[in-house]
Amino acid sequence: MKALYIASTGMGAQERNVEVISNNIANMRTTGYKRQRAEFEDLLYQQITRAGSQTSDQGTMIPAGLEIGSGVRTVSTPRVMSQGAVNITERELDVAIRGEGFFMVQLPDGRTAYTRDGSFERSPEGEIVTSTGYPIDPGITIPGTATSVAISPDGMVSAYLDNESTPTQMGQLQLARFVNKSGLESMGDNLFVETAASGPAQVSVPNNDGTGDLMQGYLEMANVNSVTEIADLIAAQRAYEMNARVISGADQMMQATSQLR
Prior knowledge:
With 261 residues, the chain is α+β, with helices and mostly antiparallel strands. The chain is 22% helix and 29% strand. It has two helices and 19 strands. Helix 1 packs antiparallel against helix 2. The mean pLDDT is 90. It holds the Pfam family LlgE_F_G_D1. Residues 4-34 form the Flagellar basal body rod protein N-terminal domain.
C-alpha cells in the first residue's frame, strides 16, 4: 500500500523540520546567528490518467487527470538574513553591523570567511581577532601602549596612545555583501564561506554600497523569535502525528484485507 511509504516521507520531512527548529532555539543567544527554516517540495507523481487524454472518437477529453503523488522531501534550509536586535555591551571592541554587510575573517588555510559576530578581542600581539582567534581582514593591530580604541560608524579604527590628546588611526574595517546572502555556506564558529550560489563578495567600507554602518559598544543578537519557533514546533509535531496516523490507518486496512475469507 503506497500510503505507508507516502506517510513515511512526511514523517521524515517533519523530523528534519524539528531538527532545524531545535537548532534555532539552541542558538537564541548566539551573537549574529541567523535562523533557518525548512522548505519542502512534493515528489514525483504517478500518472494514472493524464489530463487532456481523448475519451472518444468525437474528440472529447478528460478535463482533469488522475495522478497519485509519492510524498514530500526537504529541499533546502535557507537562512533568514534579517537584522537581529542590537544590544549595548559598552566593550570597545564589540561592534554591531546595522545593515547587510559581513565582517571578513582570515582563516588559517588562507581562505576568507564572513561573520556577523562583532565580539572582537586583541591577540597577544595586539591584533584584532575573533573570539576563536582568527584575525580580521584586512588586519589591524592595536599597540600595547593604547589606552582606548575608537571605531567610527564608517569603520575607521583609532587608538589613543600613552597620554596623547588626539587619536592615531590604526586601520580601516571593511565589510562584504552578497547578492544572495542565503547562498552562503555555514562552517560553524559563527562563520560563513562564499559559494557559487552566494555570488562573489562585494567589498567596500562601511556605510557605503548598502553594507551598513557600525555601532561600537554593541552586539547584534540572533534573529530568533522564541514564540514563532515554539508555534512552528507545535505545528511540526502535529503534522508528524497525522502522518503517523496515516501509517496506522493503512496498516489497519491491510490487516482487514488479509482477514477476508
